[in-house]
């Protein structure tokens, strides 16, 4: 029983990381109809940015804040203006192709310009475990759950209780109606791109100490985040969170009770199950929005 609870907590912590990245997928789709297949690289780049800052003597928290600012500018507004704005009017397929191209280019640049090796990143949480009733839970898992939970709660409060947040939701529901109501649609969409970029930095902070900073670290996190978003409904923020946690928990349980060899196939199996048993497609809900 103790092993099961430990696996459950650890899996939930890992799933929370997937959920944050999946939330970025969902927010971009809701607000702008953009599917960003370079989302994993948006996590990888801040990991290297923080590592670069630390190499110059910056403490981790300051390197994290600097990475947040840079990500909001480059991966948020820069990505929106250079790629998304130019292709949004041409449908989903050109954006998918463009973001796949960005993914390949970013990985190649980091591998050639920085390093192809994996680099350790300091953890924001202390090492060791907390023992409660014979159940050992690492401080890293506890910290991940607390930090991810605080960000999700804070984001939901911002979206539901502020004028700007409600305006962003209006844009996500129907862009034309929001424009008629006098909402600055372009600004709200820009905010969403910025939020997605900051979420990527948080994801990097939580996952890099375990997975290490490597040019291809975004492959796994990006794929699982996309699967989590699909499993949860793609157009549903709460569904994206649930999808991420579900993948994380089942990965841990399958890896421990079945075989570690099947662990990486859990997300794909859940994705295929959703596609097979809901042939109408969860993306159908998202198609209802008007861009």
Could you explain how this protein is built, in words?
It is a single chain. The longest helix has 31 residues, at 2-32. A two-stranded antiparallel ribbon has the order 1-2. It is globular. By secondary structure, it is mainly α. It has helices at residues 2-32, 39-55, 60-87, 92-113, 139-161, 163-173, 175-180, 185-211, 217-232, 237-257, 266-277, 283-286, and strands at 129-132, 135-138. The protein starts with a helix and ends in a 5-residue tail after the last helix. Helix content is 75%, strand content 3%. It has a single domain (2-122, 138-286), classed as ABC transporter involved in vitamin B12 uptake, BtuC (Orthogonal Bundle), CATH 1.10.3470. It has twelve helices and two strands; from the N terminus they run ααααββαααααααα.
| The level-1 CATH class | Mainly Alpha
CA-to-CA gap between the ends?
Answer: 50 Å
Q: Biggest sheet: strands side by side, in what order?
A: 1-2
CATH architecture: Orthogonal Bundle
Mean pLDDT: 88
Helix content: over 70%
Q: How would a textbook summarize the main sheet?
A: 2 strands, antiparallel
SSE series = HHHHEEHHHHHHHH
- The value of Rg in angstroms is 19 Å
Protein structure class:
mainly alpha
Question: What general form does the structure show?
Answer: globular
Measured by DSSP, the beta-strand proportion falls in: under 5%
């Amino acid at each position: 029983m103790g092993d099961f609870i430990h696996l459950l907590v650890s899996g939930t912590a890992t799933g929370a990381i997937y959920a944050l990245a999946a939330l970025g997928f969902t927010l971009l789709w809701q607000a702008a109809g953009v599917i960003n297949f370079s989302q994993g690289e948006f996590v990888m780049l801040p990991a290297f940015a923080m590592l670069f800052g630390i190499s110059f003597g910056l403490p981790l928290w300051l390197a994290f804040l600097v990475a947040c600012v840079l990500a909001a500018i480059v991966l948020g507004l820069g990505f929106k203006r250079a790629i998304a704005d130019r292709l949004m009017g041409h449908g989903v397929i050109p954006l998918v192709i463009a973001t796949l191209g960005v993914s390949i280019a970013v990985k190649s640049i980091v591998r050639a310009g920085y390093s192809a090796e994996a680099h350790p990143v300091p953890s924001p949480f202390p090492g060791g475990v907390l023992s409660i009733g014979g159940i050992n839970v690492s401080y890293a898992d506890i910290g991940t759950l607390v930090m991810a939970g605080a960000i999700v709660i804070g984001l939901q409060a911002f979206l539901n209780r502020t004028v700007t947040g409600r305006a962003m939701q209006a844009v996500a529901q129907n862009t034309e109606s929001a424009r008629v109501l006098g909402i600055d649609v372009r600004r709200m969409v820009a905010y969403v791109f910025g939020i997605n970029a900051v979420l990527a930095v948080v994801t990097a902070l939580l996952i890099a100490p375990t997975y290490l900073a490597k040019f291809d670290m975004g492959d796994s996190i990006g794929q699982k985040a996309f699967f989590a978003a699909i499993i949860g409904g793609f157009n549903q923020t709460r569904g994206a969170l649930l999808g991420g946690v579900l993948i994380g928990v089942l990965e841990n349980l399958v890896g421990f009770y079945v075989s570690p060899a099947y662990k990486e196939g859990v997300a794909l199996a859940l994705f295929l199950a959703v596609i097979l048993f809901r042939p109408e497609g969860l993306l159908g809900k998202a198609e209802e929005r008007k861009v």
